[in-house]
Amino acid sequence: MKILVAIKQVAALDEDFEIRADGKDVEAQFLLRDLNEWDDFSLEEAMRIKEAWSGTPVEVVVVSVAPAEADETLRKCLAKGADRAIRVWDPDVEGSDPIAIARVLAAVARREAPELLLAGAQSSDHAFAATGIATAALLDWPHAAVLTQLTYNPGARSARFRRELEGGLLHEMAIDLPAVLTIQLGINTPRYASLRAIKLAAAKPIEVLTLSDLSVPASAVGEAGSLSHVRRMYVPEKGRAQMIEGSVEEQARRVIEIIREAAGGAA
Amino acid sequence: MAGNDAVTRILFQDFAPGTVRLFYVIGYAAIAVFIYGVYVQVRKYRRGAPAGMPLNLLSRLESMTAILLNHRMIKRRDRKAGEAHRLIFYGFVLLFLGTATITLDYDILGPLFGVHFWHGEFYLWFSLVLDVAGVMLAGGLLYMMYRRGWLKPPKLDYARPDRTPTDPDYDRSNYRREDWAFLWTLLTIAVSGYVLEALRLVWLQTQAEVWDTRWWSPLGAAIAQGLRSAGLSDAGAGLLRRDLWWFHGLLALLFIALIPYTKVKHIFTAMGSLMFRDPQAAQRLPREKPDAPHPGVQYITDFNWKQLLSLDACTKCGRCHEACPARAVGAPLSPRDVILSLREFANRTLNAAELPAQAELDVHGKAPGQVSMETLWACRTCMACVEVCPVAIEHVPIIVQLRRKLVEDGEMDPQLRKTLQTIHKTGNSFGESKRKRAAWTKTLPFPVKDARKEPVDVLWFVGDYASFDPRNQQVTAGFATLLHDAGVDFGILYEGESNAGNDVRRVGEEGLYELLAEGNIKALAATTFNSIVTTDPHSYNTIRNEYPDFGGQYEIEHYTTLLLKLMQQGCVSTSRKLNLRVTFHDPCHLGRFNKGYDAPREILERLGCELVEMGRCRSNSFCCGAGGGRIWIPDPVGAEKPAQNRMREAARIEGLQVFVVSCPKDLTMFEDALKTSGLEGKFVVRELIELVREALAQPQATPAAPVAA
Asked: How far apart are the C-alpha atoms of B476 and B433, rounded to whole Å?
């Protein structure tokens, strides 16, 4: 019985960052890498199911579509108890949007044939909230997003869960397996991975796959395979707030003045 | 009479032959019981892990004997009890040597070689010395009874903060009963011994060699006078003597036999604990063994034999209990009770012939004998307990090793967990970008050398708080100015510096500590310098005492030593006398850990400050409460914080103007506590560097010669 957990090593912004010369991303040296916070919760959920089950052992496999620098994050996942890690990379994957990534993840899912594919509801850097569900669409599997509670007995044909809606409402559902579920923050309390555990996890192997291992053509990924493209990334001009003092009449006069200036003088 | 063979005490005088044999049988039986008891204890210690320490038996024996003889550790913070114990100790030792001497004469030299020496002049002096010894013993015991029964110091009621009244191991009356039984038994043996001595004198009063020399046993003779005047005949005395002889003898043999089963074993376990102590106990924590199945201590058998032995050395004197800052503010931690719990647990599980299943050996939890998470996380690792313990029990390493297991299992406050993850990611506990570590240098009118790019004479290891905390940045800039104006060739590591790791290690995240230490050592290896200075006592402690274990050996001083040198050499000359009434708070990691008490005080004297010491100063300084990772753990709401406790102590000094600190965490904790304890306005908290800057008339125009490293 297998749970596949898709994880992403996300980027966080360092101080005084600069935009890359091509204007499409932040300069690499200003990015700090770590495990996506949502994925911490989905991995913990997989571990929770694994550890609560006393029947046939549940295998938890983490997968990431990323270059070698993501090995550090995969090792952290292994330290938290994942049994195996898979990393898929190929220079052609560079520049992929969530749909292109999803094509790769779907290929891995077909290869691994898990009962459950867990992913984070979104990533903290690009925040598309699309990759998990796109993978489900490509697999044509049942799916649900933004889970805040999951009940699953390994080996069962279905699972029950709650998902988060707006206004504090919860949506209680059941789903047939295999399925893709994207996990929301707060579903559990992710465990701490001590440095010692991370060091010991170095003994667990990370399987590195290429596109050809998965029979995914280069045209399906990268810029070529993406359905969306980044035009530019920029820091929006920060406006300055101004206090308008004076009596109500004076304030109104000043507001009209500002509007006229902004509209280029037209009334 | 001198030299006369007849001047002696005939052993077993007028005993029927069968009774002497009976006595010897009982004696050997007592010894057998004693030996078996020792065997069980030794078997218990051997069930622990190997200690892996260099034995150096001879030098350890020497230092242990010195401590025993001068009793300097027992006298600390309880002088009268220390002196009374010294009387008991010397009295008991002399009486024991006396019995051994008699045995040597009667059972060994006599029968084997026909040599007897216990008579004549020797015998008379022997009698006098032992009479005095008995008085010392009894006197000491009586004082202890008075102290325990009338003075009733709170620490002797053994009330424990880590259990509630409903817990089965909350009640300590069995300990109190054992203590009283010990005192009464020993006193009864002593008193019955004197009465016995007197009865023999009355019984043999017609023998000149006995009666005429009786004043060589002054107390016995005095009692004999009294008995005789009360009308006791020699025949009557003879009968009483025979019965009292058996009472005294059997009680003494019972006492000996029960030594390994009772508190009396501290005679040996204290010696053992003192002999095998680690002089760097809390300053330098032990490394994890690379092949260990789990980190730290989970099972009682994870402790090494030396630790198991020292658990048995505790006599519940309560000095650690009194010194502990966590205990003082009501936290569920008493170092004494951690030791006693573990001892009870060890006795319950390791005394049996068969070792119980491993699952029953887990010391973590709330069952009797176990130590809970709340207790372990309350510790500030300030080492007050280790420093004061008269029998060299090392509480802090025990607590840290237990914490290592908690950290591995993630059992810690969420805030602490987050901080550890932050330190791992950014190399500092503030979560700030590495690039901002040296942002404080931008406020200075002069450049600060980058030690990564050019050689420096003095490398300044700044530390997290001094680099990132806004209030401490003022002090840091001040120190930089001091060094610059004094012409010191110094530099910093800029982004190459990470958290030194002292507190990370004491939290129990040994893996993260190793990462930080190795990283800093690598950064230092790439630089050229003669010595290191730091304004952070925590960094000072770990770099000085622990980095050598990881390959980083440096000459390092705390800024107070360097500053004093600069002042002595005239490179920093303060013309203005401050004339402030101040008190100095010894930082744990500078003072108690590394004996750095004097340099700051000399500086204050040079500044013309009037130093009024707080009651708890120098080695007894009261921790600000930030150590052991506690600065990263929220304090319980409503409870007093150690820093507030300290502020109230300082407030008792009449006319106090400045509370002086020399540690960045102290500055943070005490400035906060000054406000929250409602004492703002009564006095101020200042770093020593700030006082020096105040006293400087103006910065040096011409830099004096750089200080020699």
From this structure: 19
When pLDDT is cut at 50, 70 and 90, the band that residue A264 belongs to is confident
CB contact under 8 A, A195 and B295: no
DSSP-derived secondary structure letter, B498 = -
CA distance to B80, B172, B180, B385, per residue, from B186 (Å): 20, 22, 10, 29
Residues B143, B147, B151, B154, Cα dihedral to 10°:
170
Enumerate residue ranges in chain B where pLDDT < 70.
Answer: 1-4, 697-709
Say what the pTM is.
Answer: 0.92
- Judged by a CB distance cut-off of 8 A, whether residue A195 touches chain B is yes
Q: Give yes or no for a contact between B38 and B309, defined as CB atoms under 8 angstroms apart.
A: no
CATH number at residue B336: 1.10.1060
Chain B residues in contact with A194 (beta carbon < 8 A): 295, 407-408, 410, 509, 511-512
**How many CA atoms are closer than 13 Å to the CA of B287, on its beta-carbon side?**
13
Give mean pLDDT, residues A103-126.
97
In angstroms, the CA B495 to CA B426 distance is 10
Give the integer Cα–Cα distance in Å for B67 and B273.
12
> Which two structure tokens, joined as six digits, stand for B311?
């658990």
Other CB atoms within 10 Å distance of the CB of residue B134: 24
User: pLDDT tens-digit profile of B344-359?
Assistant: 999 999 999 999 999 9
Neighbours of B31 (CB within 10 A): 13
Judged by a CB distance cut-off of 8 A, whether residue A16 touches chain B is: yes
Q: CATH number for the domain including B104?
A: 1.20.950
DSSP B21-48: HHHHHHHHHHHHHHHHHHHHHHHHHHTS
- CB-based contact, B516 to chain A, within 8 Å: no
Neighboring chain A residues of B510 at a CB cutoff of 8 Å: 195-196
Q: Select from A40, A195, A198 the residue whose CB has the most chain B CBs within 10 Å, as the one to mutate to test that interface.
A: A195
Best residue of B288, B291, B418, B424 to probe chain A, by most A CBs closer than 10 Å: B424
* Nearest by CB: A15 against B410, B421, B433: B433
CB neighbour burial string for A40-61, b if at least 16 within 10 angstroms, e if fewer: bbbbbbbbbbbeeeeeeebbbb
pLDDT, tens digit, 9 for 90 and up, residues B337-394:
999 999 999 999 999 999 999 999 999 999 999 999 999 999 999 999 999 999 999 9
Residues spanned by the domain of B632? 570-695
B413/A contact by beta carbon, under 8 A: no
One domain for residues B588 and B646? yes
In order, the DSSP letters of B47-79 are: TSB-------HHHHHHHHHHHHHH-HHHHTT-H
From B512's Cα to the closest Cα of chain A, the distance in A is: 5
Q: Are residues B104 and B243 in the same domain?
A: yes
Return the pLDDT at B698: 54
Q: What is the CATH number of domain A2-225?
A: 3.40.50.620
Query: What is the number of domains present in chain B?
Result: 4
**The predicted structure's pLDDT at residue B250:** 96
Model pLDDT, residue B611: 97
Taking only Cα atoms into account, the Rg of chain B, rounded to an integer number of angstroms, comes to 31
Q: Is residue B522 a contact partner of residue B452, using CB atoms and an 8 Å limit?
A: no
Those of residues 492-511 in B touching chain A at CB distance below 8 A are 509-511
A14 touches chain B (CB under 8 A): yes
